[in-house]
């Protein structure tokens, strides 16, 4: 797939996301003209670009949808539930066609596509027939000449000549000139002539260079500044000149268009001088002698041919410059940064071994710069949660309608940023949790009213930073999860016996066990508990944790905690004999010392820390590490899901920045299931990175159950 094709698919995906969000807002406020205009322009752009790249099925859908929204934009019809449903269904097909490169995967999809296309065309036909009937009636209504003149003056049409000459490097900035030309089309009646005289021989063409330029004629009622705004993001990578050439529409004049066609194919091409000369010449023709004086007034050439785009940008206080970068390139960059971190550790170790003050100073400065590079690289790879939040608006809308439930869905903290690799794998787990809330959490209106609640259910999704991690919380005000029912189900399945002590919170979190469900009937949409083990597994694969809090008839809160990055870990380096371990810093509470002979002096693998009995995890024993333990060992307390344990090690080396690598076949005979991975240290040896969450869960299970 060539780079232009890739960029097209990326931008279509963005357009579709914007379109979906605009429609969801439009559904709440159907008379919002700005949103209607936005939907129309996206449809127009999708129609043009999809046809250009051979995606005719997308073009067919958007062509007729554009017509429908043009009726709405011109207030010839109102936005209806039927139109919204047709548009949302079209969006679903556009997503499929983007994923399948314009192919419908099955005969069933082909039939559904043809049915949808027929429904849209039928709607267009109905609107056109209705409008024709209204227009015929309107012909019987006279308008005074004075009134007509007032209407024309309010929206006076003028004609502009636009010279748009992109710089050769324009495409490398992520800007597509064809999309900007499409936006010009949306401003009025437009005629475009392509200049391709600078295109080199085939073997000399560079993939990301732009060799084309355009002469554009636009008849519009818009201001010059509005036209210039279309080209705002190409400000530093193009030459743009906008000239007003007439105080009336010229594009209906066939002689003018024919002359411009002739000029476009000659060596000199179209120019402001040739246009002015033609208009003056045309105004002197015998057939137009009576209009001569008026025609002279209409030929207007402005003194400043070049529009200052920087003034427009500064007037809006928005001089933002951005570029589009392939996700693959970001991954490659992070791999290089990871290797640099490993090299930096080797440099620091080498400086210490050689006892060189100069080399140590270089290593320290390199470390500072590398930390800046790491932090900036991580920031580049961060993606706002809003990118997936927006997907869920549609889910809640559709499921609410299917289940005939009145649900208000709100989000908060969409600006919270997370590593893109986490975002890519987070959508499905959240999707499943939301389905559960909609299907089995929120009651029907009748039940809610009977329980003293409002008929309208609420689901709130929020994200925020806390304790060096990202937290995602899903709250609903539904019927909640009954811990008593959970216990009964667990006993029935043989997971617990009747004497097993279990708090309500622990009981509720049993729904994460494989195949555990309390749903009394099977649902096509979800089942609270069905697949929750997979949700937890996905979250833990992202080095995260999930837990649930719920109150009967009050609602349920599901909390997900995630690291900011998956590839680089700030941790504490510890040793057990000569084996090195890294504990993620986000899990560490405090550090203590303990005498070796005190370790097993407690009861049931508990040690006393700050007057509190805490279960401990002895690293030497768990990983079968031989050798004699030191007389004084050290304790690190770590917390997971509110549960605290003590991790006993030989020695704490200090803070350590590590690059997480997969374990592979390392031949670890014991404890491998408790590791996140490994990291290569400065001397080339391997340190094992501990999974604090799994350690806590395993230890608490061993001690208390």
From TrEMBL:
Give UniProt keywords alphabetically. Answer: ATP-binding, Chemotaxis, Kinase, Nucleotide-binding, Phosphoprotein, Transferase, Two-component regulatory system
Entry superkingdom: Bacteria
Domain annotation HPt: ranges: 1-101
Domain Histidine kinase residue range list:
335-566
Give the Phosphohistidine positions (modified residues): 44
Sequence ranges assigned to domain CheW-like in this UniProt record: 568-701
> Which reaction(s) does its UniProt entry say it catalyses?
ATP + protein L-histidine = ADP + protein N-phospho-L-histidine
An example GO CC term for this entry is: cytoplasm
SUPFAM superfamilies in the record? ATPase domain of HSP90 chaperone/DNA topoisomerase II/histidine kinase, CheW-like, Histidine-containing phosphotransfer domain, HPT domain, Homodimeric domain of signal transducing histidine kinase
Give the enzyme's EC designation: 2.7.13.3
The entry lists its GO molecular-function terms as:
ATP binding; phosphorelay sensor kinase activity
Which GO biological process annotations does it have?
A: chemotaxis
Q: What does this protein do?
A: Involved in the transmission of sensory signals from the chemoreceptors to the flagellar motors. CheA is autophosphorylated; it can transfer its phosphate group to either CheB or CheY.
Can you name this protein?
Answer: Chemotaxis protein CheA
Species name? Xanthocytophaga agilis
């Amino acid at each position: 797939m060539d780079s232009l094709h890739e960029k097209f698919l990326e931008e279509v995906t963005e357009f579709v996301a914007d379109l979906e969000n605009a429609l969801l807002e439009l559904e709440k406020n159907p008379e919002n003209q700005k949103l209607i205009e936005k939907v129309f322009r996206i449809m127009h752009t999708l129609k043009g670009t999809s046809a250009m790249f051979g995606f005719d099925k997308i073009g067919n859908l958007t062509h007729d949808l554009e017509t429908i929204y043009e009726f709405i934009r011109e207030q010839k019809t109102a936005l209806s539930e039927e139109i919204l449903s047709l548009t949302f269904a079209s969006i679903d097909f556009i997503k499929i066609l983007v994923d399948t490169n314009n192919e419908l995967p099955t005969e069933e999809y082909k039939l559904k596509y043809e049915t949808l296309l027929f429904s849209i065309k039928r709607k267009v036909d109905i609107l056109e027939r209705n409008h024709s009937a209204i227009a015929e009636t309107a012909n019987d209504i006279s308008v005074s000449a004075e009134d007509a003149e007032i209407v024309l003056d309010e929206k006076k049409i003028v004609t502009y000549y636009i010279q748009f000459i992109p710089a050769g490097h324009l495409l490398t900035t992520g800007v597509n000139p064809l999309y900007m030309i499409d936006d010009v089309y949306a401003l009025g009646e437009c005629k475009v002539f392509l200049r391709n005289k600078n295109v080199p021989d085939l073997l000399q063409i560079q993939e990301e260079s732009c060799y084309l330029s355009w002469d554009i004629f636009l008849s519009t009622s818009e201001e010059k500044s509005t036209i210039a705004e279309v080209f705002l993001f190409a400000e530093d990578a193009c030459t743009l000149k906008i000239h007003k050439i007439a105080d009336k529409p010229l594009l209906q004049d066939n002689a003018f268009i024919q002359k411009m066609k002739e000029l476009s194919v000659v060596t000199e091409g179209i120019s402001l001088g040739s246009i002015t000369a033609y208009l003056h010449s045309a105004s002197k023709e015998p057939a137009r002698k009576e209009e001569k004086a008026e025609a002279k007034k209409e030929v207007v050439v402005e003194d400043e041919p070049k529009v200052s785009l920087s003034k427009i940008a500064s007037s809006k206080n928005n001089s933002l410059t951005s570029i589009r970068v392939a996700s693959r390139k970001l991954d490659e960059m992070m791999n290089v940064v990871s290797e640099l971190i490993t090299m930096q550790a080797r440099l620091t170790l080498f400086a210490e071994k050689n006892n060189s003050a100069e080399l140590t100073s270089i290593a320290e400065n390199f470390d500072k710069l590398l930390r800046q590079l790491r932090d900036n690289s991580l920031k580049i790879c961060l993606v706002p949660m809003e990118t997936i939040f927006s997907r869920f608006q549609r889910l809640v809308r559709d499921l609410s309608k299917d289940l005939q439930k009145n649900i208000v869905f709100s989000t908060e903290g969409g600006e919270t940023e997370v590593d893109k690799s986490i975002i890519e794998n987070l959508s499905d787990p959240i999707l499943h949790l939301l389905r559960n809330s909609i299907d089995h959490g929120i009651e029907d209106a009748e039940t809610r009213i009977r329980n003293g609640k409002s008929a309208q259910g609420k689901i709130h999704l929020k994200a925020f930073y806390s304790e060096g991690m990202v937290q995602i919380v899903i709250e609903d005000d539904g019927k909640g999860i009954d811990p008593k029912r959970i216990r009964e189900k667990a006993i029935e399945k043989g997971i617990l016996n009747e004497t097993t002590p279990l708090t309500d919170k622990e009981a509720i979190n049993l729904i994460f066990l494989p195949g555990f469900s309390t749903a009394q009937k099977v649902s096509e949409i979800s089942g609270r508990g069905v697949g929750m083990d997979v949700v937890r597994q996905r979250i833990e694969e992202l080095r995260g944790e999930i837990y649930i809090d719920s109150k009967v008839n009050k609602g349920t809160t599901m909390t997900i905690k995630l690291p900011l990055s998956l590839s680089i870990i700030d941790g504490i380096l510890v040793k057990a004999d000569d084996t090195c371990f890294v504990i993620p810093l986000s899990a560490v509470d405090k550090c203590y010392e303990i005498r070796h002979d005190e370790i097993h002096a407690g009861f049931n693998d508990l040690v006393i820390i700050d007057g509190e009995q805490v279960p401990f995890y002895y690293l030497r024993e768990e990983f079968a590490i031989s050798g004699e333990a030191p007389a004084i060992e050290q304790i690190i307390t770590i917390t997971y899901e509110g549960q605290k344990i003590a991790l006993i090690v030989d020695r704490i080396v200090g803070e350590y920045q590590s690059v997480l690598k997969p374990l592979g076949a390392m031949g670890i005979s014991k404890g491998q299931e408790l590791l996140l991975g490994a990291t290569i240290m400065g001397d080339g040896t391997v340190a094992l990175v501990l999974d604090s969450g799994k350690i806590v869960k395993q230890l608490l299970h061993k001690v208390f159950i």
